[in-house]
Amino acid sequence: MQRIVRMLLTGIVGLTLSGFGRCSASTIASRNPEAAMSTVEIIRSRGYVCTVYQVTTADGYILELHRIGFSNGRPVLLQHGLLSTDVDWITNPARQSLGFRLADLGYDVYLSNARGNTYSRRHIHLDPKKRAYWNFSYDEMGLYDVPANVDFILKLSQKSKLIYIGHSMGATMFYIAAASHPELNEKIDLMIGLAPVASMAHFSSPVKALAPHVDVIQFYLRSTRMTAFLAKESWSRRFQKSVCQHTFKTMQMCQNVIFYITGADRKNFNSSVLSIIEGHFPAGTSVNTLAQFAQGYNAGKREGEQFRAYNHGLSENLRRYGLPVPPTYNLTRVTAPVYLFWGPGDLLASPKDIDWLSKQLGNLQSSVKIDWPEFNHLDFLWGMNSNRLLYDPLISVLPIP
After folding, report:
1. Which helix (H) or strand (E) holds 48?
2. At how many degrees (to 10) do helices 248-262 and 235-244 cross?
3. More confident: 315 or 270
4. Reported pTM
5. 298-334 in b/e burial notation, b at 16+ Cβ within 10 A?
6. Fewer CB atoms < 10 Å away: N or C end of the chain?
7. Which of 336, 377, 376, 257 lies closest to 9 in space, CA to CA?
8. Given this model, what pLDDT does residue 55 score?
9. In which band, very low, low, confident or very high, does the pLDDT at 3 lie, cut at 50, 70 and 90?
């Protein structure tokens, strides 16, 4: 079992992305100074004003929120995906980064950070070094993080609605929030899901082979007293740096791992930002968060498409939910206008699962297939052709700033 767990950890560490794209010896030799900067420092180094806010959730988690500029325009909230931070939205050159593009157009741009990542690792009384702090999944991110950020931004901006854009798990969080808090829908101008994840019945990445072992893997990780999973300060980061930055061949190895997991699009990545991505990813999350994705795949294989809460086991399910199995989220209660953008080459958010999601949402406006056969899960953030294929069409559906 230990061997299986090590395979899981080192496989995800291979997601380091430092080997993603077409690399050259000069690329490896040079390290962009932004790799060692925080999100705030990167924003300011690009010539933008950045303000930092602390947002406290109803269950006591303290989230860090970053604002680009001081626009009085329409607020836009950008939410990153699994194991990431808000740096995802500003990594590419400013003209190719969604966060900067929206700010340049006059939108009031906010970048949120999910609980447990590098920037949002505080609580009003729980210690992040203790396991109790990490007793959350993406359920809590949707139930508490999203409403807290939305309400904070609307109060600060004195606006009645905002635009929400989420990538991968960032979209998952929104659907949980809107289905669980129907009043939240009235605070949303529109929601845009990029490579959105809900049902995982048709998840096609090869890492699905580890999903049947999720219970044993969780038990092993807890028995080792693991708290943060794949945090920047963990042994996995040391492994990442020692392997993926060592030689051109090891860079290629890590590149192949990421393509193997998310889908290959070798022609569409800006290798000049490799070191920036490596400097920030992975940013940590809870064991339960990873496990919930595996649970979703396992349940989908058994019972077909569905979108359920976290499975705590029979006794805890009965205590929390009053049911032996976790309840499903009713996506018809997501009545805010929703646009979905998805890639045909995405192994994590599969076209079949996107199709199921589009039929469940209460107010779907459009489901847009990116017109690029290899467009994968991470091209939404770092693809060189994302302006033409994604950001321009996305911006066209937004209400004016």
Report:
1. none
2. 120
3. 315
4. 0.89
5. bbbeeeebbbbbbbbeeeebeeeeeeeebeebebebb
6. N
7. 257
8. 98
9. very low
pLDDT at 245 exceeding the cut of 70: no
Among 232, 262, 200, 251, residue whose Cα is nearest residue 24: 251
Measured in Å, how far apart are the chain's first and last C-alpha atoms?
53
Query: Phi then psi for 111, rounded to 5 degrees?
Result: -115, 115
DSSP 90-155: GSS-GGG-HHHHHHHTT-EEEEE--TTSSS--EESS--TTSGGGG---HHHIIIIIHHHHHHHHHH
Q: What is the DSSP letter of 264?
A: -
| Three-state SS at 365 | strand
Which of 241-245, 254-258, 369-373 is most confident? 369-373
Contact present, 13 and 239 (Cβ < 8 Å): yes
Kindly list the distances between the CA atom of residue 317 and the CA atoms of 44, 58, 239, 354, in Å, as whole numbers in the listed order. 46, 22, 37, 28
Residues 168-191 have pLDDT tens digits of 999 999 999 999 999 999 999 999
Q: Which residues are catalytic?
A: 168, 346, 377
Least confident residue range of 1-15, 96-110, 233-247, 359-373? 1-15
What is the distance between the alpha carbons of residues 112 and 120, in angstroms, rounded to a whole number?
9
Residue 218 CB neighbour total at 10 angstroms: 18
Distances (CA, A) of 363 to 41, 67, 185, 337: 38, 29, 10, 5
**Amino acid residing at 52:** V
Site of tokens 């447990």:
116
Q: Write the CB contacts of 135 (distance below 8 Å, at least 6 apart in sequence).
A: 286, 288
Q: Residue 326 in contact with residue 296, Cβ under 8 Å?
A: no
Determine if residue 298 is left, alpha or beta; phi over 0 gives left, psi from -120 to 50 gives alpha, anything else beta: alpha
Residue 371 has pLDDT above 80, yes or no: yes
Q: Are 104 and 391 in contact (CB under 8 A)?
A: no
